[in-house]
Design brief:
The complex is a heterodimer of chains A (436) and B (156). Chain A has helices at residues 10-28, 260-263; strands at residues 36-52, 58-61, 63-73, 80-91, 101-113, 120-130, 133-145, 150-159, 173-182, 186-199, 202-213, 219-228, 233-246, 249-259, 282-295, 298-309, 317-328, 333-344, 351-360, 365-380, 383-398, 401-411, 418-433. Chain A has 436 residues and is mainly β. The chains are: A mainly beta (436), B mainly alpha (156).
Chain lengths: 436, 156
């Protein structure tokens, strides 16, 4: 199979054909079916930045991105809808890649939501989170819950990854989830996923368990455990006890662990495979997070995360963070301050982070400023700190049309001094179409 | 051959589900595909209007209050169902961050929204060396099961 980024392959062609057919579906429907609520959103971004390339010369980049999403719901007066989302890029300056263009059809699918029992069907390309699965696939998804509280979901199709190499044909993904839900009290599920492909010599085959419990008091227990069938071992587990004694206070205490060899067995990304990473390592994480509304609009956010490694390299670390947010101007604006401190066994893993931001929206205008700095314990490329400031000004020209301009200044181990610009145009259109 | 057989079993299961149709479904009201009223600007707080249990998600609305605690744990809720999220956020919202192929960081796209909790602010190419060493599992959730050519520039 050829890499999707170079030339056209069969799967990409079939995907595009299916997407085109689905996009044209509303137009192909007979007149009585034309009634629909339509929302269209276009986000256009024009970036400008300079980069020094090998040889010491500068290149000027000006990629123009267009993101389009659309939702056509209530098709023909039925609980049927069609959703799509995708983007494209054209380089107006020097090429950011070989041919100066790029793009992706992220999703395009038909969805039916039954009025009761959360009965649902999706057909096309969609992002799915269901038990152990968090996938984008070209295929079908069905879900429903019975009066007894038991429910079932199944999915199947072709995985939409950038590329799975070393497989000639027939890559497929399928699975499902069996669950039991009792309103306001519990949801427990067992899920399965299998993806045919070459994941470091094996298929990707996972069994997952998930639980959510609320035993009548303002406490929730949720958890997930993913078992890797291909390596016959538990890849990851995560449990969270969440306390909500009032609508102002939200606290979570949790535990997570994972083993590199089992969690990263199904990676397609070389960053997670040996020798980039020591596959014999295991990680245990304890964390506490807090959100406390101390006064109208004023929230304190805090968290501590202790990361313990089985291997002395990279060693253990603790991240502590504290932040304050204030919402004002009828909640249209917000200001915030935050600080985070990472202490670690190794100096190379220690840093501090400070951030301040504010927005201001007088009438149709909106201004924002965001400043962030990192102070590294050990110098990186001869530099021990980094700064980034983003300033933005926006104008709501019409209820459905907004334009904004960002300027970003960065000084970091990668950039001695870098300025970049971005122009953003947002168009949001909603309409109810009639029909007979 | 085995692959064809298992795929056939899945298609069969789907066909059986369709054949059973909607007659076996609970009569509890589903989550509406779209929130019936326009939502105010800013971070959503379901509790301003809802104090009960979502008939669709079968969890209290209080669980979905968008505190920093919920935002950090949102995957746990999403793994049990996406409908309640999609009702307010729209179908494409998740893919603003969870994309298979993306060139713009979320905070570049939303540079005018510093109030949003977004990953990878600042020159994250530098910082990911540290965060990635300490907790690569947190990176893997979004970046692991993809063959990102940008990673390959360094991770060969």
């Amino acid at each position: 199979m050829r890499d999707a980024s170079h030339g056209v392959n069969t799967r990409l062609g079939m995907g595009l054909c299916c997407a085109t057919l689905l996009l044209l579906l509303p137009a192909l429907l007979p007149a009585p079916c034309l009634a629909a609520d339509v929302t269209l959103s276009s986000q256009t971004y024009l970036l400008y930045y300079e980069r020094e390339v090998t040889g010491g010369s500068d290149k000027e980049y000006a990629p123009l991105y267009e993101y389009i999403s659309g939702d056509v719901s209530n098709l023909g007066g039925n609980p049927l809808s069609f959703h799509f989302y995708g983007w494209g890029r054209v380089d107006l300056g020097d090429d950011t890649d070989d041919d100066g263009t790029g793009g992706d059809l992220a999703s395009a699918y038909l969805q039916y939501i039954h009025p009761t029992g959360n009965g649902e069907m999706r057909l096309g390309r969609f992002f799915l989170t269901e038990g152990v699965a968090a996938e984008i696939l070209d295929g079908i998804f069905l879900k429903g819950r019975t009066p007894s509280g038991f429910g079932l979901s199944v999915f199947g199709g072709v995985p939409v990854e950038r590329s799975i190499t070393s497989t000639d044909e027939g890559d497929s993904i399928y699975g499902g989830r069996l669950f039991f839900a009792r309103s306001g009290f519990a949801e427990i599920g067992v899920s399965y996923l299998k993806e045919d492909g070459d994941f470091q010599g094996d298929d990707r085959e996972m069994v997952g368990g998930d639980i959510w419990l609320k035993p009548g008091i303002p406490v929730e227990l949720s958890g997930r455990a993913d078992y890797n069938v291909s390596t016959s071992s538990l890849a990851r587990q995560r449990y969270v006890l969440r306390l909500m004694p009032s609508s102002r206070l939200d606290i979570a205490v949790g535990y997570e662990d994972y083993t590199y060899a089992d969690l990263f067995q199904n990676t397609l990304n070389s960053a997670f495979s040996s020798p980039a990473i020591d596959n014999t390592d295991e990680v245990q994480i304890l964390f506490v997070d807090l959100d406390f509304l101390i006064a109208e609009g004023l929230t304190v956010e805090a968290g501590v995360k202790s990361i313990q490694h089985d291997r002395s390299n990279p060693g253990d670390a603790t991240r502590a963070e504290l932040g304050l947010r204030y919402a004002y101007n009828d909640r249209k604006d917000m200001a915030g301050l935050s600080a985070a401190f990472v202490s670690a066994d190794q100096d190379a893993n220690e840093y501090q982070e400070f951030r301040a931001f504010a927005t201001y929206s007088p009438g149709p205008w909106r201004f924002s400023l965001d400043a962030l700095t990192h102070q590294y314990e050990k110098v990186i490329s001869g530099i021990d700190d980094a700064y980034q400031v983003v300033g933005s000004a926006g104008w709501q020209a019409l209820p459905y049309l907004k334009a904004s301009w960002d300027v970003t200044y960065t000084r970091s181990p990668r950039f001695s001094e870098d300025y970049s610009g971005l122009v953003r145009v947002s168009l949001d259109i909603s309409a109810a179409m009639g029909g007979n | 051959m085995m692959r064809r057989k298992t795929f056939g079993l899945v298609v069969g299961a789907i066909a059986l589900s369709l054949a059973l149709g909607c007659s076996v479904l609970s009569d509890t009201e589903s989550v509406p595909p779209k929130h019936p009223e326009e939502l105010p600007a800013g971070r959503a707080d379901c509790l301003e209007c809802h104090d009960d249990i979502s008939t669709g998600a079968l969890k209290p609305y209080a669980s979905f209050r968008h505190s920093i605690v919920f935002i950090k744990q949102h995957s746990m809720y999403a793994s049990q169902g996406q409908n309640l999220c999609a009702s307010c956020h729209g179908a494409s919202f998740c893919q603003t961050c969870h994309a298979r192929k993306e060139e713009l960081k979320p905070n570049t796209k939303m540079g005018d929204r510093p109030d949003r909790v977004l990953p990878h602010r600042g020159d994250y190419v530098v910082l990911h060396q540290i965060d990635g060493r300490l907790d690569p599992g947190s990176c893997f959730r979004c970046h692991g099961n993809k063959d990102d050519s940008r990673c390959r520039a360094c991770h060969r």
